[in-house]
Amino acid sequence: MKYMMFVCSDTEPDTSTAEWPDIEVWVSENDARGRRLEGSKLAAVSAATTVRVRNGELLVSDGPFAETKEVIVGFDLLECADLDEAIEVARAHPMAWGGRLELRPLVDL
């Protein structure tokens, strides 16, 4: 099953003194196991553009639509047997400590 893992910032990161996992190790291990299909860091929120159509009119605005302190900073497309495996993959990601990870299954259309 495919999962989109949104990598998000967080205003309350983990404050323990434990060392965070290395992102390069996480990427190479999950790429080698075929669990990470694609992923990337995103440009800064200031580079975002929001597109909407309301009453037939195109509305384009700079920046993200949501007014929030937590923002999506990257993504990874995962291929996992089930949600439990996706959770284990996310648990080992450095941003599980420094931010938050949101897992969503992809829906076949």
- Number of discrete helical segments: 3
Helix content: 10-25%
The CATH class is Alpha Beta
Order of helices and strands: EHEEEEHHE
Distance linking N and C termini: 14 Å
SS-based structural class?
alpha+beta
Topology:
Layout: E1 2-8, H1 23-32, E2 36-41, E3 49-54, E4 57-62, E5 72-79, H2 83-91, H3 95-98, E6 100-105
Antiparallel strand pairs: 1-5, 1-6, 2-5, 3-4
In words, what does this structure look like?
This protein is α+β, with helices and mostly antiparallel strands and 109 residues long. It has a single domain (2-105), classed as Dimeric alpha+beta barrel (Alpha-Beta Plaits). Helices cover 21% and strands 36% of the residues. It has three helices and six strands. The protein has helices spanning 23-32, 83-91, 95-98; strands at residues 2-8, 36-41, 49-54, 57-62, 72-79, 100-105. The strands form two sheets. A four-stranded antiparallel sheet has the order 2-5-1-6. It has a two-stranded antiparallel ribbon with strand order 3-4. β3 (49-54) and β4 form a beta hairpin. The model has no long low-confidence stretch (mean pLDDT 92). This is Transcription initiation protein. Pfam families: YCII (PF03795).
Short description, anyone?
The chain has helices at 23-32, 83-91, 95-98, and strands at 2-8, 36-41, 49-54, 57-62, 72-79, 100-105. The chain is α+β, with helices and mostly antiparallel strands.
Descriptors:
109 residues; alpha+beta; Alpha-Beta Plaits; two-stranded antiparallel sheet; 36% strand; globular; Dimeric_a/b-barrel; YCII; Transcription initiation protein
